Amino acid sequence: MVSQYQTEIPVPQVVQMEFRIHVGRCRKCRRRVQARHPRQTSDAIGGAASQLGPRALGLATQLNKGLGLPYGKTAAVLEQAFGLRVSRAGLCQAMARVARKAEPTYDALIEQIRGSPSVTPDETGWRVGGRLWWMWAFSSSQVTVYAIQPGRGFEQAAEVLGADFDGFLVRDGWSIYRQFVRATHQSCLAHLLRRCREMTLTARAGGAELPRTVQAILQRALQLRERRDQGQIGERGVAVARGRLEAQLDRTLQRRFRSPQNRRLANHLLRERDALFTFLNCPGLEATNWRAEQAIRPMVVTRKVWGGNRTTQGARTQSVLVSILQTCRQQLRPVSSFLQKLICSPQPKVLT
């Protein structure tokens, strides 16, 4: 006799609950008073008395905002898997209410980002009402904040990060990031290495020398970091080796270049010169903006699936909810219980 094991999902069952609510008026001030059960998601009665429960709404939020399913497919999953019928418009309005309750939590995440010692930003195109907007992502080791903004300038970045941000800013070469003058900058080496490799493959005879030299310098800098982190070289040795790398880069950039591509690369490196090797002076500081790249990737997938948001309110809902979902994942917190607690909150408040 042998054994076989099978893991199965039990047949789901939708449960409808009725809350008998006491309603009255104060004898002195005549103010209307209505009771509320901890499992209620809304105080609405009358024509709006039928509501989705916190588990159903939490699951719908994760499917739509966390996994990128459109409202129609989210409704289809709820109906096919659980027999729960809900319209796309109903889901949209319900998630907007969740986002309104989550506004204080979202504002608290922004304050945490502004106070973080190191932040990695990135941005990608997004559609709102058919027009080009931008999805910004600001990520630290514990928190990620998304913000869908109508522009890609310093004003939009500073609205989240704060114009006086004075921590470490690990970013790509987008020029507006250099306007955070109080921050300590680290330019993403992964972007530069990728650019050098692509230039080397397409360069004509003699035009590959600059990207190859720059690539070699940056790779030696990364190797120097590995030796430092492994305890193979001390601080003084790192400082000497960094000085040599900087001197070699300066000599390389002083040359005249015929190729327009090489001139553009050299000019970019001159602008980024002070932000190339910051990570060698600051143990623990990343040399690439991988954290923001990872945070922005699910949004790129969502954009390909259903394009963006139809309204500015929908964009705000998207920003608030995906920020909370991503932060919960970073902190290894159970998303479902957090959303249920948020949904059942009588008033918007900060949840930590």
Number of helices: 13
**Using DSSP, what is the number of strands?**
8
As a percent range, the share of strand residues is 5-15%
Task: Tell me the radius of gyration.
Answer: 26 Å
Task: Provide a quick synopsis of the model.
Among the domains are: 104-116 and 127-183 and 290-334, no CATH class; 189-281. 49% of the residues lie in helices and 12% in strands. It is built from 13 helices and 8 strands.
How would you describe this structure to a colleague?
With 352 residues, the protein is an alpha/beta fold. Among the domains are: 104-116 and 127-183 and 290-334, no CATH class; 189-281. It contains 13 helices and eight strands. The strands form two sheets. Strands 3, 4, 5, 6, 7 and 8 form a six-stranded mixed β-sheet that branches. A hairpin with a 4-residue loop joins strand 4 and strand 5. The radius of gyration is 26 Å and the shape is elongated.
Features:
alpha/beta; 352 residues; 13 helices; 6-stranded mixed sheet
What is the secondary structure topology, with strand pairs?
Blueprint: E1 23-25, E2 32-34, H1 54-66, H2 71-82, H3 88-101, H4 103-114, E3 118-128, E4 131-139, E5 144-149, H5 154-161, E6 168-171, E7 184-187, H6 189-202, H7 209-229, H8 235-253, H9 260-271, H10 278-281, H11 290-306, E8 308-309, H12 312-330, H13 335-343
Parallel strand pairs: 3-6, 3-8, 6-7
Antiparallel strand pairs: 1-2, 3-4, 4-5
Helix pairs in contact: 1-2, 1-12, 1-13, 2-3, 3-12, 4-12, 6-7, 7-8
